[in-house]
Write a structure and sequence with these properties.
This protein is mainly beta and about 325 residues long. The protein has two helices and 18 strands. The protein has a single domain, classed as Porin (Beta Barrel), CATH 2.40.160. The protein has a 14-stranded antiparallel barrel with strand order 1-2-3-6-7-8-9-12-13-14-15-16-17-18. A two-stranded antiparallel sheet has the order 4-5. A two-stranded antiparallel sheet has the order 10-11. The two termini are about 30 Å apart.
Amino acid sequence: MKKFLVILLPFLLLFPIHLTGDGLVKVGSIGAKFLDIGIGSRPIGMGEAFTAVADDAVSFYWNPAALTKIEGKDFSINDVEWIADIRLVAGAYCQKFSFGNLGLFVELLDSGEMLETTESYFDGTGKTFRFQAYQAGIGYAKMLTDKFSFGFNLKGIREDYTHVKVNNFAFDVGTLYDTGWKTLRLGMAMQNFGPEMSPSGTYKIWQGGTNIDPSTGEEMINEFEPYSMPLLFRIGFAMDFVTLPNQLLTAAFDIVHPPDNNERYNIGMEYSFLKILFIRGGYGINRDEGGLSTGCGFNYRVKNTLVKLDYAFADFGRLPDIHRVSVGYGF
């Protein structure tokens, strides 16, 4: 119990302070926003209420403490066609050892070719460019008691704006606690904790179609300013309400606080039949667009390998709907 309180204390101190803030919604003040895109068809199908539900390799992206749920080896690959033809691919692998659970994860976002425009050429210069962003790292989790686990990720982050490249690093940390009351679980996570992203180099300042300062006759050039990463705080609850031999119904609720917007409240459910067929649904409250999500899954065991196929649909309101496909292997 003492270990649990020691690990939980930083969350209890930081989470309320971060929620309170200064009362401002700082939209547009954060960079590396690809880190805020949910990974995995199963969590998205549950409305992103996954902090206390995670139990496979996708846990790297939600709550690294949940990696302790993996009893052998687990691999997951996820593909998302994001808004504006942006492609996001992520993969993760975790294995249980005598000293804890250890694994690797990677994520790539690619905008595809985009038309270059400038102040002088509003319709395009005839050139194209692309934006790419990456994160890759290692994660470790361990059961500190029979009910409490702790985990963390150490990851490298990169954003590539063709002519400008930014490298950084960050930490994720999480806890997962089985309360002992029925099947209630509590999960907490802090993600993307690290220094500011600092682009190197300079850029030209354009005014009235020119970058020449009329008072000096020289080019107007400035250095790039650093920007913060999306530091996320998550707290989640999960409980099984139906626990029949061949059926399981799990409900979950998450509170997520981003640094540049209001708190999000995620509600999700998952129904399992024979641990083979899965039906999921969820809703996100306080989002800018959409909120409803649904999904399904199919698990099939081939000898000693469990094959997992999952699909999720997310309504984005006035923006295009998002479809996700995930494939996982447990062995």
